[in-house]
Design a protein that fits this description.
- The structure is a single chain.
- The chain is 62% helix and 3% strand.
- It is mostly helical.
- The protein starts with 5 loop residues before the first helix and ends with a strand.
Length: 451
């Protein structure tokens, strides 16, 4: 791959790349009916499905008849339509991402000159600087969303996630736990800080970021396409059932219907994050030539232990950020158990802030006949979920991993997931009340029933 200096790389990323993407979006917008330009629906009333262009329709019943199948029990076999993504919605997401990168770039310069380059400076002074940055970042989404008049939760979410990465990276810098390979120059640290949607891979001997090959770029592009297709099918299926394929009634936590809904909830979050990870990895591989780790490594069906589920397969990026920004600083002064508890509590608290800023703050009231309403969100459920995750992780450390028992190996991933699956709704409830699932539909093509 062609080598570019840091200044050129940043110019391409901050200026040229967004401009190129915007040009593509504008070309698409010219072919979309005026109804798609109704920002009141695309960014305002999240309870109303954004109007999107119907690309084509197809008759599933006719296809099945040609195959000699007269009917499918319990399945809709009538007419379907294929909706294009909402390009106005994508345009808004692109602008938010661009603003997030600018904020991260400015913060990286401040942190590098006040903490990274001044290694002999006292930790107390560095923490004072980091604390000031954290307070500013915690207030930023409320000011930004009001100023930009952004109501859509799926547009807000990636912006706040970027701020969360900046918060923990400010803490890791204050305690001296930023990866050694990204602190050698300001340019490399700026790349590390702004590429907050992915985790770099480092050489085990030199500790320098690994270079991405052309093969890595094509693999990231292929993964993006693959995850996009899977998400289209998943969104199309779940939206038909209002994201509750087994109904909303729940009698007890081990009710098979409840567990079925929780499984699809977990699968939804896994696939949404996998898509964001694939996109961020493609940009990082192609523009900066750096190799990245997979954020989601099929945790629902491959995890052999609870530690592996949370530590290596589910949101590996967030695991790395919490390890450097919470676990190591706390472990420096206390025991491993206290540090682990602090990690789960910090995760729960930061998710509560995320839910308030994304799902609750200045969200429009849902229609009276709507089952879900942002006004109904009661904060605390995410903190309870991550507290429970700490409890089961601690039990595993005391008793040993499930895979080390006589349990048949094919059942191990199922039992690992079952330690948290019944309580998944504690995590997902704010997203249902905030109608986040429905907001996400505009990001992907969707197949809908027409009759």
């Amino acid at each position: 791959m062609n080598k570019m200096d840091t200044t050129q790389q940043f110019f391409y990323t901050i200026v040229l790349l967004p401009a190129f993407v915007e040009a593509i979006y504008r070309c698409n917008l010219e072919n979309v009916p005026p109804t798609c330009h109704q920002y009141s629906q695309a960014l305002g009333l999240s309870s109303v499905r954004p109007e999107r262009r119907l690309l084509f329709t197809f008759d599933a019943g006719g296809v099945l008849s040609n195959l000699g199948v007269s009917q499918v029990h319990g399945a809709h076999v009538g007419k379907f339509g294929f909706l294009a993504p909402d390009f106005v919605y994508h345009d808004s997401c692109k602008r938010v991402a661009q603003h997030n990168m600018i904020i991260a770039a400015v913060l990286s310069v401040i942190i590098y000159h006040t903490m990274i380059s001044k290694r002999r400076q006292s930790t107390t002074k560095k923490m004072t600087i980091a604390g000031t940055i954290i307070v500013v970042l915690l207030l930023t989404p409320y000011i930004y969303f009001d100023f930009m008049d952004i109501k859509q939760s799926a547009v807000r979410q990636p912006f706040v996630m970027g701020l969360i990465m900046s918060i923990f990276r400010a803490i890791e810098a204050a305690f001296g736990f930023a990866p050694e390979g990204v602190t050698s120059t300001l340019g490399m640290y700026m790349i590390y800080f702004t590429c907050s949607g992915c985790e770099f891979l480092f050489d085990t001997k030199t500790y320098q970021p690994l270079k991405a090959s052309v093969k890595d770029v094509f693999q990231s592009f292929g993964r993006l396409l693959r995850v996009g297709i899977i998400n289209t099918l998943l969104f199309s299926y779940l939206s038909h059932f209002d994201y509750m394929p087994f109904g909303r009634d729940r009698t007890y936590y081990l009710d098979p219907r409840h567990l079925g809904n929780c499984f699809f909830i977990a699968l939804f979050f896994q696939q949404v994050m996998a898509f964001g990870d694939a996109y961020a990895s493609l940009i990082t591989n192609a523009i900066f030539g750096l190799k990245t780790a997979k954020m989601m490594d099929n945790p629902v069906v491959k995890s052999k232990s609870i530690a592996e589920f949370w530590g290596r397969r589910w949101n590996y990026l967030f695991h790395c950020v919490l390890k450097r920004g919470v676990y190591k600083p706390v472990r420096k002064y206390t025991s491993a158990a206290v540090a682990s508890l602090t990690v789960f509590l910090a995760s729960g608290i930061i998710h509560e802030w995320l839910n308030h800023s994304v799902q609750v703050y200045h969200r429009p009231e849902a229609p009276k006949d709507s089952v879900y309403n942002p006004r109904n969100i009661i904060l605390g459920s995410n903190l309870a979920f991550f507290t429970w995750a700490f409890v089961v992780s601690s039990i595993e450390k005391s008793l040993g991993e499930i895979s080390s028992t006589k349990v048949p190996q094919p059942l191990v991933p199922f039992l690992v997931v079952m330690t948290s699956l019944p309580f998944a709704f504690w995590f997902a409830e704010p997203y249902f009340q905030g109608r986040f699932f429905w907001d996400c539909e505009g990001l992907m093509p969707t197949i809908i029933a027409m009759d």
